[in-house]
Amino acid sequence: MEVIRAESVPDLGAPHRGISSLWVRGPGQDDTLDVAIVGFEPGSATPPHVHHGGQTLVILSGQGFVEVDGVRTEVSSGDIVVSPPGESHVHGAADDAAMVHVSVTTGRNELLGDIGPAFEAQTRR
């Protein structure tokens, strides 16, 4: 077991397309746990993707959304999102607020060809 103290976690780094991340474990893209802290600038979002071993998000701060099959659900600090293996989804920050979450996954992740409206909107900025 390893305990990572909050004060020892470095900055997330420079964002790319509004998203920055810090890998705590991984990315192994295999059966081991991949753990990342991910920050989203207001209005930014992931492209549609799947995690073949599933994904759990813990919202640390801010406001955002998760989207599955075109249905968007708002999330905020303290919320936990569990995405089953193979479920296509998008997640990101609200238009007027940043968001930071912890992501825990296993298995390979895959970006999907149809980038969808959430990602298209953020790339038009």
Order of helices and strands: EEEEEEEEEH
CA-CA gap between termini:
42 Å
CATH topology value: Jelly Rolls
CATH superfamily: Jelly Rolls
Helix content: under 10%
Radius of gyration: 14 Å
As residue ranges, the low-confidence spans are: 115-125
Question: How many domains would you count in the coordinates?
Answer: 1
Proper CATH architecture:
Sandwich
CATH class: Mainly Beta
Number of strands: 9
Q: Can you walk me through this structure?
A:
It is a single chain. This protein is mainly β and 125 residues long. The radius of gyration is 14 Å and the shape is globular. It has one domain: Jelly Rolls, CATH 2.60.120. The chain has one helix at residues 116-123, and strands spanning 19-25, 34-40, 49-51, 55-68, 71-76, 80-83, 90-93, 99-105, 109-111. It is 6% helix and 44% strand.
Summarize the structure.
The chain contains one helix and nine strands; from the N terminus they run βββββββββα. With 125 residues, it is mainly beta.
